[in-house]
Amino acid sequence: MSDKYDVIVIGAGPAGYVAAIRAAQLGMRVGCIDRWLDDQGDPSLGGTCLNAGCIPSKALLESSELYHRAHHDFADHGLDIKDVTMDIGRMQKRREKIVSQLTGGIAGLFKANGVEWLQGSGSVADAGKVAFEPVGKNARKKTLEADNIIIASGSEPVALDIAPFDDERILDSRGALTLPDVPKRLGIIGAGYIGVELGSVWSRLGAETVILEAQESFMPIADTQIAREALRQFGKQGMDIRLGARVVSAKAKTGKSGNVTVRYSVDGDENEEVFDRLIVAVGRRPCTDGLLGGDAQVELDDKGFVSVDEEFRTSLPGVYAVGDVIGGPMLAHKGMEEGSAVAEILAGQKPHVNYETVPCVVYTSPEIAWVGKTEAQAKSEGIDYRVGAIPFAANGRAKALGQEIGQVKLIADAKTDRILGAHMIGPYVSELIQEIVVAMEFQASSEDIARIIHGHPTLSENVHEAALAVDGRPIHFAPKKRK
Question: What is the pTM of this model?
Answer without folding.
Answer: 0.95
